[in-house]
Amino acid sequence: MVMEWTGCQFASMAPPNDEAISGHRLWIRGLQDLLWLGIVHDSELIAGLELQNRVHPMHSAARFESLTHYLLPLKECVVELVARDLAVHRIGGTTVEAAVRARA
Questions:
Q1: Alpha helices in the chain (DSSP H)
Q2: Which of 8, 10, 42, 91 has the lowest CB atom count within 10 Å?
């Protein structure tokens, strides 16, 4: 399986791992019930990205309205992405083969 985010504005693969995940800042906001991929509603991360971009002379708050905050807990880390869209492709083969086929 290959996940493809478009219009990515933020990406992070960071601790905690699965043994310490209850210490993650989003644990009590729903991460505790997440088994796979989730969406963070009313994301403080998106609000923070919009706020820091206000100094840009061409800033448009509307640009941030179409973004979604995705959360994916893995064994060794938590993946967080802020992007416009996500596509999930179910492609056979090794990880590398699936990634190459997805980009073709």
A1: 44-53, 62-65, 95-103
A2: 42
d(CA 48, CA 77): 22
Task: Give 3-state DSSP helix, strand, coil % of the chain, rounded to 5.
Answer: 30, 30, 40
The one-letter code for the residue type at 39 is I
DSSP 74: -
**pLDDT score for 102:** 84
Nearest residue to 29 (alpha-carbon basis) of 67, 78, 88 = 78
Determine phi and psi for 43, rounding to 5 degrees. -65, 120
In the chain, which stretches have pLDDT less than 70? none
What pLDDT sits at residue 37? 94
Closest CA to 34 of 48, 49, 13, 18: 18
